[in-house]
Design a protein that fits this description.
11 helices; 12 strands; globular; about 50% helix; about 250 residues; 2-enoyl-CoA Hydratase, Chain A, domain 1; alpha/beta; two-stranded parallel sheet; about 20% strand
Length: about 250
């Protein structure tokens, strides 16, 4: 059976590639596999390149079928795993380069927001926090993460109305750092990863932890207070699921 996450490492650069054969849904299994890959990168002390191996999709986000089924235990465990991974990435010992070459629905967007450098290919793919459009309130950890990277007016548009943005607008909003033509993405990855490899890693880690101390504190508080089994059971018992399962890719 093919692994959903592939890991390779050479010359101090670890390539973590997501490919579940479909839409890279952030299921329990995918999140565990990603965490394991980051364990390996940390042991290797390698710069990370995180990307998708699927055409036109970075990730379809969390597994909405879990939410639609009102599975309180499954939903809380899945969201917490995603939140903990994003929080881990914010203080990862080495730089992370996130590469978007297709749609990045919310948890996919969260992984990109938690990366140190975010590049995308130009194209008709979108990213953002579209939860309210499908019947979910954005989790607090995600709002705090987005607040740390996205310009306020654009943040309000995506959090409160579920608007998604193509790369040019996403760059203006602060979701991305740069955009390149699809045919230039490999050269761009090599150039950026090579430059990151030359950083003094202890200084890089100290700097990112100082810079992000506030957002990491606020994310930690949101995770601990919101993503609990009791909270998810209460939501499941008070209202039927309103989650819409759209064709997202």
């Amino acid at each position: 059976m093919k692994e959903s996450v592939a890991y390779t490492q050479a010359d101090g650069i670890a390539r973590i590639t997501m490919d579940d054969g479909k839409l890279n849904v952030m299921s329990h299994a995918m999140l565990r596999a990603l965490d394991t890959a980051f364990d390996r990168a940390e042991r290797d002390k390698a710069v990370v390149v995180l990307r998708s191996g699927r055409p036109n999709i970075f990730s379809a986000g969390f597994d909405l079928k879990v939410f639609a089924a009102n599975d309180a235990a499954g939903g809380s465990m899945m969201v917490k795993a995603g939140a903990e991974l994003a929080l881990r990435m914010l203080s990862f010992p080495t730089p992370i380069l996130g590469v978007m070459e297709g749609h990045a629905f919310p948890m996919g967007t969260f992984l990109l927001l938690a990366s140190d450098v975010r590049i995308a290919t130009r194209g008709p793919h979108r990213m953002g926090l579209n939860e309210v459009a499908i019947g979910i309130a954005p989790p607090g950890f995600a709002v705090e993460l987005a607040r740390s990277r996205v310009h306020p007016a654009w943040l309000s548009r995506t959090v409160t109305t579920g608007e998604m943005f193509e790369p040019d607008d996403a760059l203006t909003a602060g979701f991305l750092d740069r955009i390149v033509a699809a045919e230039g993405i490999e050269d761009e990855i090599s150039a950026v990863a090579g430059a990151l490899r030359k950083l003094h890693m202890p200084s890089h880690l100290t700097a990112k932890r100082r810079l992000r101390a506030g957002v990491m504190r606020d994310m930690r508080a949101a995770i601990d207070s919101e993503i609990t089994l009791a909270a998810y059971q209460a939501r499941a018992s008070t209202s039927p699921s309103s989650v819409v399962l759209p064709g997202r890719a």
